[in-house]
Structures are given as C-alpha cells and as structure tokens.
C-alpha cells in the first residue's frame, strides 16, 4: 500500500483477538465456490507485447506481455476481466521450466487507469519485478480487478485479490506453456494482503497449480484498528490520507455507502484521491489536508462507523489456514500498518496452524523494508523443496 502512512496505535482489538480461522474455510461471499467455472480461469482474452519499460526491467526480461485474463470476483463469484503483465527472464530455463512468482503490487490507486501494466514505470513496481527476474523467476504481475479493465476496484477485499493473484499464474502459463507448474506469491502492503490471502485460498481455488509458499511484506492484513473508538474517529493526518481508499473499498461491497458519511469540506468525495493514481495525487491531497478542519472528519453516523468497522473486521487476515509456508517481513517503525497490528494477525495465523516465519526488521518503516535478496533466497529454498523455518510458538 504505497501510502503516506497512519499512526502506530496499539489499541485493544476485540474481533479476532483469540480466534483461530474457521474450519469452514475461507468465506467466499454469497455464492458456492464449487459452482465457480474452472475451465476459463486464467483464460487470455487479450495480449500484447510490452515494449516501453524502464531499463532495469527491459534488460532483465527476455519477453514482456500485457494481458487481459479471466478471473473471479470474491464478492459474488461472477467471472471478471483483469489486466496484468507476464515477464519471462533472460537465460536458459531450468528443467521443468521457469518457476513463477505471482507479484501483488502495493497501493497504486483505485481508479481504472492505476494498473501498473498500463505504465512504462509500472507505477513504482519495476525494481522488485527486476529483482525477481534476475533471481531466475518468471513474474506474473496482476493489476487486480478494476485497475485496467474497467469497473470498480474492490480495494482490500482479500478474496478477490487472492483469486486475481492465483489466476494471474494461470494466465502466465497460457502465455508460455513451458513455464513451471510451481509458483509462489510475493506482495507488498496491499499486495502483502493479497499474497497472504492467496496462500489461504490456494487449497480450494488453486487446483492444478503447485503453490510452494507466499511472501507478505508489510501486509495490510488487518486495518480494523483504524476504526477503534466512538465516532467521530480521532485520526491524524496520515490516517486521513488512507481513509479515501478504505472507503472506496467498502463501497465496492456496500454501494450505498457514501463519502459524505465520513468526509466533508475540502475532504469531501475523497479529496480527489480516488480519481487519480498514487504519485500524481500528492499535491491535491496535501492541499486538501492543509485546508481541512477536525470537523471535516467523521464518521458522522454510528451506522456508517459500524458498517466500515464490521467490513474491515470481517476481511481481516487470517481467514483460513494456509497449507504452505508464509514469510512475513515488516518494520518496527511502520506507521501505515503498525507492527502490533501485524503481530496480532501472525499470532492468529499461528494459532490456526499456518507455518509462519515472521521477521520484524529493526528501523524499517513501511517504505524502507527492502530485503529483496532475503525474500528471493527464501523463495529459492521453497522452490527447491527445502523445509521452511517457523517462528510460531511450538
């Protein structure tokens, strides 16, 4: 989630605190997962070469394609069209084909033009993708539903993100049938949530593919603490900057929700952030924040507060036990997704039986974790079949 941040507040959390994931599995919305069509998931609807890329990616990729592929809504189970990109590394593929890393990006915005595959700089994702290519992985990078193929983007809806991440692997194999059947997920912030959720959903939804593990970096695993307290919420400037995206995500599952229930004055309608991509909206965001007042911040009704709080609580990870190892990298100075929030999600995952290797990075904030070689090494070990370490209490 490439955002400015929010305050690290370690407040008690009533929901999920001691609960392990349900034995019933990941909730999929008001539909039967068995009824979701399986033969079209990952189907290529359109494809074209990506010619204009930053040199670090262009030099690392033997091939690059922008694709539109078939996936599934995690809200209602309907088939969807999603865009993304497939990158094939240079060199000779190993026996069995290049292993695939499904890369889930951090927040780039919620508008339809904010899919990284539409931009030559991949909206800030280029360095990580180049690192994966240079490490010997094919990269399947989803834009997520609504970012590139039209329609609304269900921001932070974890099941949709998981389905998009998994189906992106199928799309990559449809572009290059010689790619390995083994894959891993890696995501950062919003993408960290997606990679974590994909690990949980893969047992039911990832049939025909072999997931070896997931890497979640600064994952937005549980943002429900931003709604702690009675309305109006006492938010600082960074939390206010995060709120429009969260409201937009809530609107995807509750269309009657209105920005007017949460923001007024110069902040009304998300102060323009939901219509632009991250990186281009900073001036308008700063101006709106400078000219706002505490009275512009809601929620202004208890119903509005309860609705978004219930949604964030219901989507908080973990939702199920992951059958594969999970590496979580996060910083002790992160003020976007504070370490105590991630700690609680990790504790619940461990209690539910997921094998977690949690690594708290001293001095790192949300944007400075890095550790590309560390995560690439972990991925190589998983593809090689080496057992993963776990920091969960035994």
UniProtKB/TrEMBL annotation:
GO terms for biological process: lipid catabolic process. It holds the Pfam family LIP. GO terms for molecular function: triacylglycerol lipase activity. It comes from the Bacteria. Residues 1-28 are annotated as: Disordered. Gene3D superfamilies: alpha/beta hydrolase. This is Lipase.
């Amino acid at each position: 989630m490439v955002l400015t941040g929010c305050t690290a507040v370690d407040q008690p959390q009533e929901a999920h605190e001691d609960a392990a994931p349900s034995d019933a599995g990941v909730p999929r919305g008001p539909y039967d997962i068995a009824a979701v069509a399986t033969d079209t998931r990952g189907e290529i609807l359109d494809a074209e070469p990506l010619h204009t890329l930053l040199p670090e990616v262009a030099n690392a990729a033997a091939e690059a394609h922008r694709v539109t592929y078939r996936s599934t809504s995690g809200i209602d189970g309907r088939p969807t069209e999603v865009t993304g990109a497939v990158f094939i590394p240079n060199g000779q593929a190993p026996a069995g084909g290049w292993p695939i890393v499904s890369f889930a990006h951090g927040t780039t915005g919620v508008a339809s033009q904010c899919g990284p595959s539409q931009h030559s700089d991949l909206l800030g994702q280029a360095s990580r993708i180049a690192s994966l290519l240079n490490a010997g992985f094919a990269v399947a990078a989803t834009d997520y539903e609504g970012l590139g193929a039209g329609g609304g983007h269900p921001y932070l809806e974890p099941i949709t993100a998981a389905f998009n991440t998994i189906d992106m692997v199928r799309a990559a194999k449809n572009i290059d049938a010689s790619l390995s059947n083994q894959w891993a997920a890696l995501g950062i912030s919003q993408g960290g949530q997606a990679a974590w959720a994909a690990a949980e959903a893969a047992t039911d939804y990832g049939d025909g593919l072999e997931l070896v593990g997931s890497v979640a970096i600064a994952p937005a695993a549980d943002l429900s603490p931003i709604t702690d307290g009675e309305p109006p919420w006492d938010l600082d400037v960074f939390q206010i900057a995060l709120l429009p995206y969260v409201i937009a995500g809530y609107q995807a599952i509750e269309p009657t929700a209105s920005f007017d229930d949460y923001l007024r004055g110069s902040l009304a309608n998300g102060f323009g952030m939901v219509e632009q991509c991250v990186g281009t909206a900073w001036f308008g965001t700063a101006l709106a924040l400078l000219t706002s007042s505490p009275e512009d911040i809601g929620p202004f009704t208890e119903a509005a507060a309860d609705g978004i709080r219930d949604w964030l609580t219901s989507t908080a990870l973990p939702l199920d036990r992951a059958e594969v190892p999970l590496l979580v990298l996060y910083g002790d100075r992160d003020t976007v997704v504070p370490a105590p929030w991630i700690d609680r999600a990790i504790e619940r995952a461990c209690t539910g039986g997921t094998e977690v290797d949690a690594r708290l990075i001293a001095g790192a904030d949300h944007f400075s974790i890095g550790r590309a070689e560390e995560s690439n090494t972990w991925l190589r070990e998983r593809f090689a079949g080496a057992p993963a370490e776990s920091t969960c209490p035994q």
